[in-house]
Amino acid sequence: MGLRPLNLSNWFESDHGVAEELDEKHRLVRDRRDEVVGLLDSCRPAAEELRALVAEHVGAPRVVAVDHPLVEASLLVPDDLCIMERFDDEWRLSGAVVAFPSRWYLAEKIGRSLDKIHDVVPGYATQLASPVNAFFNRMTPDRSVWRLNWSLVDSPELFLPPSHRRPLDDVEEWFFRVERQTLRVLPKTGAIVFTIRTYVRSLEQLLAISADYGSALLLAL
């Protein structure tokens, strides 16, 4: 799974893109709420706990005129926020604000178990389901983790619902979409918070940083 220990002082990253991403998230929550917000009634206690932790982490005052604590928390950071709760020995997605999906619909995931959420992933049921569920069951509030996940996409947009994908014939048309994902157990409710910070860069942008980035990524394809 490629997990690494997470220092909670680095729970959320701060960089020059935060303000623009928060503006986009506010717009999506306002204009496309049904596509980016999913809430079960059961998630409210965990959402209230999460809101307090996020506000403390970023040093933000309470956000006003927001109807749910999870939505409020999500508008403080550029990361997407998901709450997993345990029901009948299964971890289920009980609440989420996912403004920047990567070719999937939140409405198709909310309320579903880990196994059902990932049933479209090749080999998940046979190779990953058992270790992933076991890892979730072993998680404790003092053991937070993070990982990176990346993919090639045909668009620089952060909000990327499912759509027809055009062939990528030219490497200059590729965009590398990187997700920094974290997992943390909330100490009071025991829910698990899954965060996703998404970065999108063209190959040209990566090469401008370092030629080694481009060659390393191409070798990994």
Secondary-structure topology with pairs:
Elements lengths: L3 E2 L12 H14 L1 H4 E3 L4 H15 L10 H6 L5 E8 L2 E8 L16 H4 L6 H15 L6 E9 L21 E11 L6 E11 H7 L1 H10 L1
Antiparallel strand pairs: 1-5, 2-4, 3-4, 3-7, 5-6, 6-7
Helix pairs in contact: 7-8
Please give a structural write-up.
The structure is a single chain. The radius of gyration is 18 Å and the shape is globular. With 221 residues, the protein is α+β, with helices and mostly antiparallel strands. It has helices at residues 18-31, 33-36, 44-58, 69-74, 114-117, 124-138, 203-209, 211-220, and strands at 4-5, 37-39, 80-87, 90-97, 145-153, 175-185, 192-202.
Describe this structure in a few short sentences.
The two termini are 19 Å apart.
Average pLDDT confidence is 88
Ends distance: 19 Å
- Roughly what percent helix? 25-40%
Backbone shape: globular
* Structure summary, number of beta strands: 7
Q: Report the order of strands and helices.
A: EHHEHHEEHHEEEHH
Low-confidence stretches: none
**Based on helices, strands and strand pairing, what is the structural class?**
alpha+beta
The largest pleated sheet is described as: 7 strands, antiparallel
Strand line-up across the major sheet = 1-5-6-7-3-4-2
Strand content: 15-25%
**Cα radius of gyration in angstroms:** 18 Å
Number of helices: 8
